[in-house]
Each structure stands twice: as C-alpha cells, then as structure tokens.
Specification:
The structure is a single chain. Strands 1, 2, 3, 4, 5, 6, 7, 8, 9, 10 and 11 form an 11-stranded mixed sheet that branches. The chain is built from 5 helices and 11 strands. Strand 3, helix 2 and strand 4 form a beta-alpha-beta unit. The chain starts with a strand and ends with a strand. It has helices at about 30-40, 55-65, 80-90, 105-115, 115-120; strands at about 1-5, 25-30, 45-50, 65-70, 95-100, 125-130, 135-145, 155-160, 165-170, 175-180, 195-210. Helices cover about 20% and strands about 35% of the residues. It folds into 2 domains: about 1-130, Rossmann fold; about 135-210, Rossmann fold, CATH 3.40.50. The protein is α/β, with parallel strands linked by helices.
C-alpha cells in the first residue's frame, strides 16, 4: 500500500500527480485538499486546521472528502506532521509527500525533518518528498543500492548527523570509508557511472537528494 500526501506548497513545484496514481491512497493537507480536487483527484482523507482555504472551498471539502480530520490552529504539530503520523500508523510500505517544498522555508525544513520519522521510530516505511526537480529521503547506517534515473541525474548526500565510513561505489566521484562531519559539502552533486551503484556507512543519518537542473 502507498499513501500520497499533498500539502499546500506552490503548485508550480508539483510534478504531474497523475503519474503517481498507482492504487495509492490520496491524502490532502489543508490547502493541499483543494489542489487535489482541482486536479481531478478526490482524496480519501483530509488533515489540517484549514485556515488556508476559503469558506467556499471548505464547503466543497466537506461535501467531497469522507475522512476529514480537522484541528484547531493552536496545536503542537504542523498539519503535515499530523498527516505523516497517521500515515505511519497505517504500516504502509511507502509514503510520498508532494507540495512540501517551495514557498516558506520554515515549512520546507519542517517537512525535511519529517523524513527522519521512520528511522527514529524504527519503521521500514519508505518516506520521500517529491517535487518537479527533486526527490529527497533519509537513510541510516547500512549498505543501500541506488539506481540511475535519467530525469534526476545528480545525487547528493547531506549529513544530518556526523557520518562515519561513507563509501560510494559506481559513482563518478567515489569514496572509501570517509568521515563526513556536519556542515560538509563534500558529497554534493555526484553522478552514477552506470545503471546501479551503492552507498554505505557505519554510523549516522544521511539525506539523499536526487535532482535535475
């Protein structure tokens, strides 16, 4: 089972959502619900305080979406956080976040932090954030495979914690047992040499960012 969560970020950063309509459960977050409806996708669930939608849009949401969870604006979690928490409770294989980048930087960095939840909660769910130019996800220590994507040829590794013994195999710029401190830009903008490569490390957490120009 896959769960697609759509936030209220600027729509110009959204990919074509219909290409991800692979028997997934769609979830709208606040203004993301109206974005989905405008694109002809009816979400099964809606989360948020809905302070970013008009009265007319809210009436349409009430009439269209069956699973609405509405919260007071004064709360400890963001609307996206609440939706991701719910999605993780469903024990799904994959969660994809759209509409989580672009616009306000505080929202973007908050959403990046959410990518750490499966690791911190010891879950196997794959949680990614996707926009027109990027796919972002987090990995903890271990050996991980990575495949070439012709539309996203650049691959960067950003340390969330200090990372020990990072090795990159099959990359244009390989590494062997390299320690990556916080603040390092050593692993920005690498590329795969063939269809498949691996990255491994013995301690820490990395953000993996796949990008295009």
């Amino acid at each position: 089972m896959k769960i697609n969560i759509v936030g209220g970020g600027p729509t110009q950063f959204l990919p074509d959502l219909h290409q991800y309509d692979d028997d997934s459960i769609w979830v709208g977050v606040d203004k993301g619900v109206t974005i989905l409806l405008e694109k002809g996708i009816t979400p099964a669930y809606a989360f948020g305080d809905f302070d970013s939608v008009s009265h007319e849009d809210w009436l349409k949401i009430e009439q269209t979406v069956s699973g609405i969870q509405r919260f007071k604006p004064e709360k400890d979690e963001t609307d996206m956080d609440l939706a991701v928490n719910w999605a993780l409770e469903q024990e799904t294989d994959m969660i994809r976040i759209f509409g989580g980048s672009g616009g306000r930087l505080d929202h973007f960095f908050g959403n990046v932090q959410l990518l750490l939840k499966p690791i911190l909660e010891a879950k196997t769910t794959e949680l990614t954030m996707i926009d027109k130019q990027n796919i972002i996800y987090a990995k903890q220590q271990g050996t991980h495979g990575i495949e070439r994507m012709s539309n996203l040829k650049y691959i960067s590794f950003i340390p969330i914690t200090p990372v020990k013994n990072l090795s990159l195999r099959g990359f244009k710029y390989p590494l062997t047992n390299c320690h990556i401190p916080l603040g390092s830009t050593l692993c920005i903008s690498n590329e795969l040499l063939s269809e498949y490569g691996t990255f491994s490390f013995t301690e820490g957490i990395l953000l993996v960012i796949r990008s295009c120009d």
